[in-house]
Amino acid sequence: ANVVLQGVEVATCGQCGNFQVRIPRVTKLHRAIARALMNSPARLGGAQLRFLRTYLGLSGAELGRYLHTDKTKISKWERGGRIGPSTDRLIRLLAAALDEELRPGVSAVAAHLPHIADDPDKDWELHVDVETLQASFLAVRVAA
């Protein structure tokens, strides 16, 4: 899933034309993205795994210990290797359980697990409003 931030402020220099994006409450925004990824409608991809791992402050080796694998396998997944359905679900629950702020939502993540789809012809964009921190997924067809 690509992440699209809505409601960001963009300041443009009148002289040179350069612009600067201001993203408020980055820590809360990261938490909102992590929460949304745990409830993603599709299996996690490498970029989503990397985001969750770094959000939790884990090295590849540390995450590997939780998943009973090594950092090489974690790296392979993060570079685009296919994450199995059981591992995907374990990663979601682990992310929810390890973050104190997200921990109350573990049961909601668990209730969502049976609804995760595995449609290779569909990709998802995660849209997050930076002011309200509301997130939603929009289906995007993969080009043939």
What's the average pLDDT?
91
Number of helices: 6
Biggest sheet descriptor: 3 strands, mixed
Our Rg estimate from Cα atoms comes to: 17 Å
Q: What ranges have pLDDT less than 50 throughout 5 or more consecutive residues?
A: none
Helix content: 40-55%
Structural class: alpha+beta
Q: Walk across the major sheet and give the strand order.
A: 1-4-5
Number of strands: 5
Order of helices and strands: EEEHHHHHHEE
Hey, roughly how much beta strand do the residues contain? 15-25%
Cα separation of the termini = 18 Å
Shape: globular
Describe the structure in your own words.
The protein is an alpha+beta fold and 144 residues long. The protein has six helices and five strands, in the order βββααααααββ. The strands form two sheets. It has a three-stranded mixed β-sheet. Strand 2 and strand 3 (19-22) form a beta hairpin. The protein starts with a strand and ends with a strand. The mean pLDDT is 91.
